[in-house]
Design a protein that fits this description.
Blueprint (H helix, E strand, L loop, with lengths): L5 E6 L5 E7 L15 E2 L1 H7 L5 E12 L14 E11 L4 H6 L9 H20 L10 H13 L22 E10 L8 E11 L4 E20 L10 E10 L8 H11 L3 E2 L2 H4 L3
Length: about 280
Amino acid sequence: MGCSPSFRPSTIGPNKPQRRLSIRPTPYSSAQDAMAVPLKTTPQIRALAPEPPATVRVQNLHLTLTHAGHDAWGRAGKSQPCTISVEVGFAERFSTAAASDRLGEDTVHYGTLSKVVLGSVARFEEGSRQHALGQGERGLMHVLEHVWRDLTGLKLDGTEVKVAGETPLIDIAKVQFLSLTVGLPKASLLGDGVALRASAVVDPSLRRVSARALALEITRLKVPTLIGVNANERLAKQFVVVTVTIEKFDQSEDIYPGVEAAVVKVSFGSYLDGERLWGC
């Protein structure tokens, strides 16, 4: 997996430098990818998406995930808290709701959106409970794909999924931007959690995704490191806070326990500055 790491410093307080490490893996290629929408980075997607005239957001729906994802120690099948957030940017204003104070087909009620998301995860959990042994473990990507499909009728790669008798909640023809984030707040030993995010720009006239992004993030890893150029800074370790983001993430495996372990291993050394710490 090829990658090019980079970081952006920010100040969070005395003696507590923060670094954001971004890793962009080289996506694999396959015959199916020929029909898929190419991956871009999340900042690129945000830049491509025009400012929507109307947006519906549901943030941090709380539930418990058991049959997918790995915990902070890399163990599968362990119950842990999960959060899901959705952002839907519509191509037009909510004309019906604005004119008559009632919902029309040009919007989505946040309560209905929440129920569909929770119901999708519940069906995923039930199906995963019946998942035969030996077929592989279910990762966080499988949860993201399942909820995305139930909301849009599309796979994460932008191709259509046709299921008889099922109508997706979100009409792609009325949307210009969509984002879905599945988080595991307890899946990091030293950080604030792990999140997997899918974003897409939609061309409503063509009823298809025109650009998409997938990103894995480990948020605010607090790593004790001997760092600094002053004599007093060489006497004791201080916390470096690191957020690791892997853009164009196209793997079904849960690699975040190994990524966190690699970051912690790097911190065991002694460094004069952040550039040397991250090899930049």
